[in-house]
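COMPLEX REQUEST
Ligand: nicotinamide-adenine-dinucleotide
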Amino acid sequence: MKKIVVLTGAGISAESGLKTFRDSDGLWENYRIEDVATPSAWEKNPSLVVEFYNIRRQQALKAKPNAAHSALVKLEKKYDVQIITQNIDDLHERAGSKNVLHLHGEIMKCRSSKDSDLVFPTKNDGLKMGDICPKGSQLRPHVVWFGEMVPELPHAAEFTSQADILIVVGTSLVVYPAAGLLDMAPHPIRKYYIDPNAQPRNNINNLHIIAEKATKGVPELVEKLLEK
Ligand code: NAD
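STATUS: Structure written out below.
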């Protein structure tokens, strides 16, 4: 079976009602990224960080997978599909995708702020200050903040380097190191980039731009790939 790697960003969930932040003037739902999604934000004002992610979690719980998430599941009929998502929502899993790697963590989980291996599902009513891990440290959202290491990057790079086809959906490709994955795909393979604002990349060989929204561009490409 041929291997397809699909790299997704906030744009694939936009039509499920979850906003990207670059589409709203650098603010993420009216919060400044520096105030809620960095290690120094956590040091300065952990309550605000916890509140921000509790709201994101509530929004994600209400959202439903859209036609783009569902189309990617259909690809599994004919291909070995690995999703690599920058999103912290769980819409790929809820659509039914089997192999999903979250580069930037998962909003439905929390972890110890001292030992990153201690990961737990977040309780239904959200995370609270004073919720501690078994080792006694405050639980934090299980997400990768700006300026933090991306522990899943080596796995993502390995999958990408073995791909026969690469599909990139709904990402501005400005957040590194995720954006750098494109360079790790084998030079000759076909690469598709679906995003209404996709910009050409002269350094990437064999890149086909599909300047469409995810719910149109992804199902159309999936149909084509299934016909092949
Ligand atoms: P980004 O905000 O930098 O870029 C979003 C991209 O989506 C843009 O290129 C835009 O043109 C495109 N887009 C907008 N609507 C679209 C649609 N309907 N169909 C296809 N594409 C569309 O997002 P990013 O590059 O993913 O990186 C931002 C970071 O923010 C990520 O690390 C992610 O963790 C986080 N984030 C996550 C969520 C989520 O989990 N749903 C939402 C917002 C931000």
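REMARKS: Residues 57 and 107 are 6 Å apart (CA to CA). DSSP finds nine helices and eleven strands in the chain.
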